[in-house]
Amino acid sequence: EGKGVIVFKNDKHIKKNDLAQVLLEDKHKSSQQDGALNPGKLPAGEPVKLLNASVVRRSAGLHKVMALDVTVRPRDVRAIGQFGHAAVVPLDRQEESRRRWSEGYFNVFLSEQIPVDRAIPDTRPPACSENLVHDHLPTTSVIFCFVDEVWSTLLRSVHSVLNRSPPHLLKEVLLVDDSSTKDYLKEKLDVYMSQFPKVRIIRLKERQGLIRARLAGAAEAKGDVLTFLDSHVECNVGWLEPLLERLYNDRRKVVCPVIDVISDKDMSYVLVDSFQRGIFKWPLVFGWSTLPEDYVKKKHMKDSDPIRCPVMAGGLFSIDKKYFYELGAYDPGLDVWGGENMEISFKIWMCGGEIEIIPCSRVGHIFRGENPYQFPKDRQKTVERNLARVAEVWLDEYKEVFYGYGYLHLLDKNVIDVGNLTAQIQLREKLKCKSFKWYLDNVYPELEAPEVKAEGLVFNVGTRKCLALNNGSLSFEICDLSKQSQHFNYSWVRTVRQNAFCVAPLGTGTGMTMEQCDNTKPHLRWLHKANKVLPEHLIAEVSPRGMFQRVCLEGGPKADSVYLKACDTSSPFQKWQFTHYYAQ
Ligand code: LR7
Ligand code: MN
């Protein structure tokens, strides 16, 4: 008929025209195979429409995931990149393909050659097509935020949603244009998308960054659930229902598809290993990690079972819209890109929710080496500032671990201004969220997160005596573990402290004093690179009369005194060791 066909893989098929009445029956008969279908010939370049299909539900019940895929039998089987295969640049176009790489930091040339609605391999674990879902699932608004996205990948992203989402569950597709500069994303995009009634374009007058762009999209969304996607993805067969099913059963679950890989070089669609979960390492660096084999065995996990994630990657997830707002959405003070995945992950877990990857839901994403758009301010400074906001609001005493791993400079008040955090801190109180320690103990116990770098007695190699704090002044005593006055911490922010007081250098040749600890004061920081085997210096940076100098803490060979002196690598009186050292 020159139109598309909806293929309900396994058991159901419906010929459609533009206003199909899709009748969902309670039980589908497995005898009705899709083998009898003829997808018909479609005019090249014209996407299959699946819109305006109204749904009549005969009764409540359970049905199999509709593996709705008009691309199971694609229009042009000979097109390059079809079926998710690797595409090859012809010899005479290689120069062009190289030249155009930086338009998107992936193979833009090839992306343009492959069909916008190509078929991709069904990468779901086999059990997924047998899983049952409810009829009355919530609807979703799919939100794509983009800035200067490549035309072909933006289109492919939208087509994959339109073609592979059950129409009755897809409320709308919102395209939030974060003030793109490219001409083709203006009128040309409006015209193209006007053929799809479900697609709406929201234009931001000023560049907001992806975080506030998502907030703008969410504010316009009419669906029950918000589904955020990056603008260079391909949703796979049956991707949506398993996500919505999980939320339907528990609205405090926030669910992510498995993120398959679309190669930036040849655009092939590649499935990723099973049992991957989202984690972070210090200082809040996102990564993937395979669940330990014995954990999988102990829990009798199948490759189709949901996987609990300490943090999400950030770009692809579904969340109940009301719940998103109950959680205070994103911190709107986060700028442009980065850190928002940490913020929302900590918020979800610490305030009563859960994050899961649903292996039956698969979405491919082009991973690229660089951002193809400009950052309004310096990229690194933007990300650092976002992370510092997250650390200040959510990490409690563990924020020192974050700063200690390479972000000490952020503590300096005049280096960055993290902005006002009052609203975020109040939100955390209002929601009665649990502590970061609770999160570490319960959600992510595998993370090494000692609160301090070292602690215990501070032993001096030359004198074989230990530091002690008596009546507010530092002295030197025979080591005695039972004396609390001899216990110090070497913190992640490099202070040597006992309770609220920190050892402060006075200057070369002079003694030491104790000062109220204040992480923003660089003069309280000591460099100390020892471990449980090797004692090392305690180095302070002082600037008497404006002259910057590195000096070392020395234990007096004669009197029981400690003082600062020019560093001497051979002097045992300048070598110190704490009783315990933790992961560096
Ligand atoms: O200023 C901007 N405005 C935007 O609208 C910057 C970006 N964007 C859009 C952009 O066009 C894209 O669609 O936001 C989306 C994400 O930007 P990417 O694709 O440049 O980000 P990414 O894939 O490199 O980075 C990941 O981390 C980001 C941190 O802020 C976001 O959370 C991304 O959504 C996230 N992507 C994923 O989770 C996909 C899997 C990557 C992994 C691991
Ligand atoms: Mn991306």
List keywords for this structure.
single chain; 584 residues; alpha+beta; six-stranded antiparallel beta sheet; five-stranded mixed beta sheet; 30 strands; 27% strand; elongated; disordered N terminus; binds ligand LR7; binds manganese (II) ion; transmembrane helix
Strand composition percent: 25-35%
User: How does the overall form come out from the CA principal axes?
Assistant: elongated
Q: Strand count, sense and closure of the main sheet?
A: 6 strands, antiparallel
Write down the Rg. 29 Å
Heteromolecules bound: ligand LR7, manganese (II) ion
Mean pLDDT: 88
Number of extended strands: 30
Helix content range? 10-25%
Structural class: alpha+beta
End-to-end distance: 67 Å
In the predicted model, the low-confidence regions spanning at least 5 consecutive residues are: 1-60
Q: What is the helix tally?
A: 13
Order of strands, main sheet, comes to: 25-24-23-22-19-30
